[in-house]
Amino acid sequence: MPCVIEVELRNWRPDDVPAVLAAFRAPDMARQAARPIDTPEAALEWMALWGFRDDARGFAVVAGGEVVGNVAVSNIDAHDTGWVSYWTSPHARGRGVAVAAATKLAEWAFRERGLFRLELGHRLDNPASCAVATRAGFAVEGVERAKIRYGTVRHDVERHARLATD
């Protein structure tokens, strides 16, 4: 899949703390974090989760020399399947950053990790995430009813997947 914008995927570094804190100040990002990411210590702890692990790998997404997002594959299992997630900072949205990052992550996961299947899901009320998934080559597979909960509200999730053979 062609990338709309050129991005680099790299390890998270301690000097990325300001970018992480700025991203998680956005209300839509803050509600998706398991706990608040509002201090340098919390940002460092969050970045450490994406280090080198057997079941997950996350990358800082850099565009124009600036950290503008995260892309990751997690829950890697014995079936060579992983779960893809991504986010971009509010000021970087709408430029194709997430599409480029998800595309590069898929290429990396298939080539370097030897994965065969990548899955992702988005709330039905998040058409922007659906567009990212589709443009990055992830085919729609169906809707999972009431799959996730934010606060007291449950949301249906549309599942997408991309195979190494796609």
From TrEMBL:
GO terms for molecular function: protein N-terminal-serine acetyltransferase activity; protein-N-terminal-alanine acetyltransferase activity. It holds the Pfam family Acetyltransf_3. One of its GO terms (cellular component) is cytoplasm. Transmembrane segments: none annotated. Residues 7-166 form the N-acetyltransferase domain. This is N-acetyltransferase domain-containing protein.
